[in-house]
Write a structure and sequence with these properties.
The chain has about 210 residues and is mainly alpha-helical. Helices cover about 60% and strands about 0% of the residues. The protein has 13 helices and no strands. Helix 1 crosses helix 5, helix 1 runs antiparallel to helix 6 and helix 6 crosses helix 9.
Amino acid sequence: MMTTAYNELYLDDSMNNLGDMVDFAVRDLGFDPDEFFGWFISSGIASKFEKGNPKYITGMSGYELVEEVLKETNVTYKKQEPSYVDFKGREYWAGWILAYYQWETNKRFEDIVKDGLTLSTVFSMYILHEADVSKFVESANEVIARNKENKKSKLHNIRKARGFTQQELSEASGVSLRMIQLYEQKQNDISKAQVGVVLNLAKVLGCEVEDLID
């Protein structure tokens, strides 16, 4: 069984507060959802939130979380009170469900976004807002799996940029064609390859070893 991010006792508060944070930042203050969520991550507050720091998941309201994020990232804005409304729409739901997804999977918000589950992507999944949370988790995992599958490896990108076919790179480097294919398809992890293999590939491609590591 997967270990959750923090004690479930905090979960309702964290979901409500992250929902209120996104709702206030996007709907009231008019910030771009993905840009604001990037500030949430770069401010360091996302890290504290995902580790279950009580100060951030229960001790601060969504409004206060926004203020803290903007203060930590030095973003200027016109201060205003939240527009308290009875109906909470997709902005609130997106933050609410992302808090649940992070808790359930124990992934970092930064990695969730890098894998393609951006806030605007979650907005587009609002059709699931009346479904059980497990349905969102299933759909979110499918989104991430597709993005990973479609994302080209660094070896592939550099090889194409240098004008090599896989066969030509194999012949020039001495690394088998099948091995190059497995690295490019990410079925084999190039970071775990023998040093000599990666050195030979980097030498032929005219790049640093680090440039080939995904």
